[in-house]
């Protein structure tokens, strides 16, 4: 998909960084064969496991290469290894010394896999739950029933986005990489109701406070539940209006990596936080809620297929998340 995109004229101001888990960066070799494209390689080994300056070095090398050719870079695509932990990648990106930027996570889902079983690896739901866009691939190998199962599987891991199923490779590549509003804040829409596809290992929670406490209490609760769930907390997203604040706040986290809350204008839309958790049951959440001293929200599980989940920022297009 990335190879298809960088052959398009609209990708001319796009830099590419490729990170493979192995010692030989095969993907980088393939991409460099396309129109002499300059591809920066992160050090061998998964970037989220290399906590040093690997990503910073790769960004610096990429920008230097474009400066030599006097070409502008409006966006950088980082293709991680299939084993990448999205939360760790975001933490690495947050340490970059370049100026502030918008970050977007795109995940692919093998459509031919259809309905997911229970034996998935931990990084798989983490990547899907973190995504601002999910692109279903291998559609040519799927009948309508298999594609429908793949779509429900995607929604069971991340009801915040609508998975895109596009047969044309160019349309798929453009949907993944072109719809970036560089330098603009993400649009915020009211809460919507989405069907929550059932998966026994994934829990979708809606957290609401009544009345809403001060921001420090909300922040303390978020820190507590992040520590309690650990890597089982896949995603947090939503809009809240803390007591004493004239504006609302957009809260966004991938794993335990929280972006700085974004200030939003006052509005009448429904408020709350969506939490996507792996292998966490109701009894555990009850024990956690009784153990914390800060003001706990009302937590509602949405686990059955017919249940409705209130979701913030629902969009068929890919949305942006602002990093600190």
Describe the structure.
The structure is a single chain. This protein has 324 residues and is α/β, with parallel strands linked by helices. The chain has 2 domains: 2-177, Rossmann fold (3-Layer(aba) Sandwich), CATH 3.40.50.300; 192-322, Hypothetical Protein Yjia, Chain: A,domain 2 (2-Layer Sandwich). It is built from 9 helices and 17 strands. The chain has helices at residues 2-5, 26-32, 54-68, 86-94, 123-130, 144-157, 169-177, 215-229, 282-291; strands at residues 14-18, 39-41, 75-79, 102-103, 106-110, 133-137, 164-165, 192-195, 202-208, 233-240, 248-254, 257-258, 262-264, 272-278, 298-302, 308-311, 321-322. Strands 9, 10, 11, 12, 13, 14 and 15 form a 7-stranded antiparallel β-sheet that branches. A 3-stranded parallel β-sheet has the order 2-1-3, sandwiched between helices. Helix 5 links the parallel strand 5 and strand 6 (133-137).
Protein traits:
324 residues; alpha/beta; Rossmann fold; Hypothetical Protein Yjia, Chain: A,domain 2; 3-stranded parallel beta sheet; 23% strand; globular
